[in-house]
Design goal:
Elements (H helix, E strand, L loop, with lengths): L1 E2 L1 H5 L4 H10 L4 H7 L1 E2 H5 L4 H14 L6 E2 L1 H5 L4 H11 L3 H5 L3 E2 H5 L4 H13 L6
Antiparallel strand pairs: 1-2, 3-4
Amino acid sequence: MRITIDDVRAIHCTRGARRWFEQHGLDFRTFLRDGIDVETFLATGDQRAESVVQHKLLREADVSGVTITARDANRLFCAIGTRAWCRERGVDERAFFGEGVLASDRLALNDPKVNQVVMAKLREEPPYGR
C-alpha cells in the first residue's frame, strides 16, 4: 500500500507535512510525485505516520453493516469515559449501550477514539464479504 499526499492532507496540512518529511530525512518532492510505501512511512516510528495510515485503512475499509457498541469501546477505554464521550458528541447512549451504532456513521466524526474502536472491531470480526 502506498501513502499519497491526499492521504496526508485528509488529516494534516501540506506545510506541516513538508516539514515532517524534512525532519525524517524523506524526499517530499518524490513523495508528492510517487507517494511513499507504507512500511517506509511507518518506519519513522512517528505517531503522525500511524494516524495517516490508520485513517487511510478506515476510509478504504468496508464497514457497511458493522456496528460498534459500548462493549467494543470499553475494551479500549473505561466505561465512565465511554459514557462521557457519548454525551459530548450527542451519541444516543441507549443505542450505543444496547444494539450499537453503525461504524460508518461514527467514522464521519473523524474522531481518533472512534477510529481506534472501529479498527479493533475490524481486526476482531472482519465484515462479511471479505
